[in-house]
Design goal:
heterodimer, A: mainly beta, four-stranded antiparallel beta sheet, globular, B: mainly beta, six-stranded mixed beta sheet
Chain lengths: 118, 113
């Protein structure tokens, strides 16, 4: 079946630094990827939708300069949290949808990346 | 706006007990409804879905019926197993597809032997 890998699974950084999280579709080409954020005991909140080769579409209230999303290839999307602060500490989850093969027309989720900003 | 409300956990049951996890939604139009499951250390997996009123989604012994009149999509299983222990998320997509889902907060289910 379709598999999405996220890396790193956990990251701790100092306030003011930038952190990059990768989301890879391992056995299908992901034309669309979604980034979610989950606070403890809260819902997953959609942050942005990215289509390969084009700019990401951000949800209302999500700072695009703060959360940089790049979807440069059909198997990789990255989320960079720039100048991270403690309030950015959260669980970030990506999902991917392909148009053919194992990932066709289904949403496959990564296992998530837990960011802790000190 | 769109929202999903599901019962808070944790829900603790004994093996072979009957399970119900309530989920209600608010949405414009005719949403598709989903249940996802997240096992420890893994990503979310689609458990079942329903795309229109009165549809019943089912998988691995779990069922949920799309009730438009009560705006509900309650998850049920007749006899749970220890391996069903996980976090369950109810979700909707107002456009009918699987993009940009709105999730509930998740319900942590613990099944004891």
């Amino acid at each position: 079946g379709a598999v999405v890998s996220q890396h790193p699974s956990r990251v701790i950084c100092k306030s003011g630094t930038s952190v990059k999280i990768e989301c890879r579709s391992l056995d299908f080409q992901a034309t669309t990827m979604f980034w979610y954020r989950q606070f403890p005991k809260q819902s997953l909140m959609l942050m942005a939708t990215s289509n390969e080769g084009s700019k990401a579409t951000y949800e209302q209230g999500v700072e695009k300069d703060k959360f940089l999303i790049n979807h440069a290839s059909l198997t990789l999307s990255t989320l960079t949290v720039t100048s991270a602060h403690p309030e950015d500490s959260s669980f970030y989850i990506c999902s991917a949808r392909g148009v053919a093969g194992a990932g066709a027309n289904v949403l496959t989720f990564g296992a998530g990346s837990r960011l802790t900003v000190l | 706006g769109n929202s999903v409300t599901q019962m808070e956990g944790p829900v603790t049951l004994s093996e072979e007990a009957f399970l119900t996890i309530n989920c209600t939604y608010t949405a414009t139009g005719y949403p598709s409804l989903f249940w996802y499951v997240q096992y420890p250390g893994e990503g979310l997996q689609l458990l079942l879905k329903a795309t229109k009123a009165d549809d019943k989604g089912s998988n691995k012994g779990f069922e949920a019926t799309y009730r438009k009149e009560t705006t509900s999509f309650h998850l049920e299983k007749g006899s749970v197993q220890v391996s069903d222990s996980a976090v369950y998320f109810c979700a909707l997509n107002p456009g009918g597809g699987a993009d940009g889902l709105t999730f509930g907060k998740g319900t942590h289910l613990i099944i004891q032997p």
